[in-house]
Every structure is written in C-alpha cells, then in structure tokens.
C-alpha cells in the first residue's frame, strides 16, 4: 500500500522510485481511465520522458494501488471474461493522495550513471580510449531520444498551449533539455578524448 501521512504526523520523504511510479500511474488515471495495457502503452509514448517503467512494474504497482483503495476497476455491463482487459480508474482517496503529493517538495535526484563511473575508471587506469565506444553509444541513444521527443512536441504541441497542456509541454521540454544536454556532454567527452595524446606520443 502506498504511504499516506497520518493526521498531524510530520511529513516524510516520499520519493523512492516505487512511490514515484505509483503517483505517475495515478496521474495517468486522473487524465483518463485505462486498461492495464493502455496504461503501459501510454507510459511508452508519453510518460517515458520523465518516468520510464516496464510493463511488469506498471502492472505490479497497479495491483498495489488497487489493494490500497487508490485505484478501482470500472464496472462494465458484463464481467470481464478470461483475457478481457479490466478498466481502471482513480478513486476519491487516490485523487486526494495525488493532490497531497503534488503539494510536497523534495530534493533534486542525484546523478547516478554508469558511464560517469566508466569515464572516471578510464582516467584512473590510463586506458582512455577504452571508454570511447560507450560514450559513442550513449551519444547515439540521447540523439535518437531527443529526435523522438521533438516528434512528440511537433505532434502534440504544434499550437500554443495553455492551462494543463502548457504544463504538459513543460514536462516534455524538461526531457528535451535533458537529452540535448547529455548529447552535448557526450560530444565534449569525445572531443576531449581526441585531444589526449596517444601513450606513445606523450612519452
């Protein structure tokens, strides 16, 4: 069950990965009711630029939210048969929990990235060129992700947005800014590697 503050209790940090995913799911269900597979596809298309999750993680947290009374199944004319998807919606308790969470604050996430560790390891071992392929791979991933986000921006925010759409656009812009920044940094790393003399040249 998702953490909820008891009346009068001091606020506690909420922002481990599992809890943040729960609130992302509640946000998605606030926007519209969805089946589990629809929710997973929406994460693939629209939520991945700020909180990526696997389909298995989404289904697992959806079950926890249902058990906690924050999500419910939408009644259907006929009970879902075997293999027929269930439709989920946020409950009033879920909406209250989401509103409470929106008003909370937390510290920015700290950087944890394997490429950074590899770069430091290359500096320590002196085998600088060994990290080049990893940097090039990350550059390719960030460039492709940036291009995907631009396609989403052109598709969904071609016209000036206001209200909730304006805020959704700002979320996408955060993803664009992050991917552009990472790509620029990767290019700078590659330029730095190019500028370091080969071992035979530095002797």
UniProtKB/TrEMBL annotation:
Residues 25-99 form the Transcription regulator PadR N-terminal domain. Pfam families: PadR (PF03551), Vir_act_alpha_C (PF10400). InterPro entries: Tscrpt_reg_PadR_C, Tscrpt_reg_PadR_N, WH-like_DNA-bd_sf, WH_DNA-bd_sf. Residues 111-194 form the Transcription regulator PadR C-terminal domain. PANTHER family: TRANSCRIPTIONAL REGULATOR YQJI, TRANSCRIPTIONAL REGULATORY PROTEIN. This is PadR family transcriptional regulator.
